């Protein structure tokens, strides 16, 4: 049998949105569907990896052979990732993590008042992928960048600032790419190079990206 590129490699991904609670019935979130992360998890299993998928709330079936850990908030995603990261050789941050969360979560439903405006105070969430990349024993770490302009400039900035080994950037302003779409196109950057992965179905694209990640991982390990 053909040896697989990621045979026995432990790989963790984050996927989907996070939900930041305001009170027992309300939250702040975003339109991430989780499709790209789930497609990558499936592609990783097909390459022979042992896959742990840390997922925010999505309505997608777990790919066969994937260990799935469900979370809601960015804080929960951060602690579940950190709890299991030591065993991982590759980490791919695909989740659309909320940048901020409400400073306090009301224990009862917030009531409307007669005032026309309301202020919600927010605090910064931990940057999960940056914290993983800062670990002394860090896995090969891959991030995503959704940009609407100057894709290369912002992606290379994130690669350096967050200490990543690779970043996959998409121009979400283009038709058929990004949030909720079934197709996507990516430009992938690493410290010494870059390559374009052209518009394709998310499953096909996931296979191409995982193959590239596996090759770069093996170049450095
Ligand atoms: O800085 P920005 O949010 O654009 O970076 C996107 C990348 O960082 C994605 O890989 C995303 O999963 C990751 N991220 C994270 N934790 C955050 C914010 C972003 O892991 N709090």
From TrEMBL:
Reaction(s) catalysed by this chain's protein: N-[(R)-4-phosphopantothenoyl]-L-cysteine + H(+) = (R)-4'-phosphopantetheine + CO2; (R)-4'-phosphopantothenate + L-cysteine + CTP = N-[(R)-4-phosphopantothenoyl]-L-cysteine + CMP + diphosphate + H(+)
Primary role: Catalyzes two sequential steps in the biosynthesis of coenzyme A. In the first step cysteine is conjugated to 4'-phosphopantothenate to form 4-phosphopantothenoylcysteine. In the second step the latter compound is decarboxylated to form 4'-phosphopantotheine. Catalyzes two steps in the biosynthesis of coenzyme A. In the first step cysteine is conjugated to 4'-phosphopantothenate to form 4-phosphopantothenoylcysteine, in the latter compound is decarboxylated to form 4'-phosphopantotheine.
GO molecular function: FMN binding; metal ion binding; phosphopantothenate--cysteine ligase activity; phosphopantothenoylcysteine decarboxylase activity
Parent-protein residues present: 182 to 402 of 402
Region (Phosphopantothenate--cysteine ligase): 11-221
Keyword vocabulary terms for this entry: Decarboxylase, Flavoprotein, FMN, Ligase, Lyase, Magnesium, Metal-binding, Multifunctional enzyme
Cofactor note: Binds 1 FMN per subunit.
Name the UniProt record assigns to this protein: Coenzyme A biosynthesis bifunctional protein CoaBC
Gene Ontology CC terms, in alphabetical order: phosphopantothenoylcysteine decarboxylase complex
Organism per entry: Oceanisphaera psychrotolerans
Domain DNA/pantothenate metabolism flavoprotein C-terminal: 6-215
EC number(s) given by UniProt: 4.1.1.36, 6.3.2.5
GO BP terms: coenzyme A biosynthetic process; pantothenate catabolic process
The gene coding this protein: coaBC
Cofactors that this protein relies on: Mg(2+); FMN
Sequence similarity: In the N-terminal section; belongs to the HFCD (homo-oligomeric flavin containing Cys decarboxylase) superfamily.
Lyase found in the keyword field: yes
Pathway the protein contributes to: Cofactor biosynthesis; coenzyme A biosynthesis; CoA from (R)-pantothenate: step 3/5; Cofactor biosynthesis; coenzyme A biosynthesis; CoA from (R)-pantothenate: step 2/5
Binding residues annotated for CTP, in chain numbering: 99, 109, 126-129, 144, 158, 162
């Amino acid at each position: 049998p053909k040896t697989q590129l990621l045979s026995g490699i432990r790989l963790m991904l984050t996927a989907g949105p996070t939900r930041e609670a305001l009170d027992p019935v309300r939250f702040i979130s975003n339109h991430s569907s989780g499709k790209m992360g789930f497609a990558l998890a499936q592609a990783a299993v097909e390459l022979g990896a042992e896959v742990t998928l840390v997922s925010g709330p999505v309505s997608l079936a777990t790919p066969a052979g994937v260990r799935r850990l469900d979370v809601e908030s960015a804080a929960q995603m951060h602690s579940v990732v950190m709890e299991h990261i030591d065993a991982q050789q590759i980490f791919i941050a695909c989740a659309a993590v909320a940048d901020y969360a409400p400073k306090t979560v009301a224990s009862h439903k917030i009531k409307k008042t007669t005032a026309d405006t309301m202020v919600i105070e927010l605090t910064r969430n931990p940057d999960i992928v940056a914290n993983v990349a800062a670990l002394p024993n860090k896995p090969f770490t891959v991030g995503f960048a959704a940009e609407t302009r100057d894709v290369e400039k912002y992606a290379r900035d994130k690669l350096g600032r967050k200490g990543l080994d690779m970043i996959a950037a998409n121009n979400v302003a283009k038709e058929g790419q990004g949030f909720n779409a079934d197709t996507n196109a990516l430009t992938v950057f690493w410290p010494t190079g870059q390559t374009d992965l052209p518009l394709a179905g998310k499953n096909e694209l996931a296979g191409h990206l995982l193959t590239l990640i596996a090759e770069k991982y093996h170049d450095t390990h």
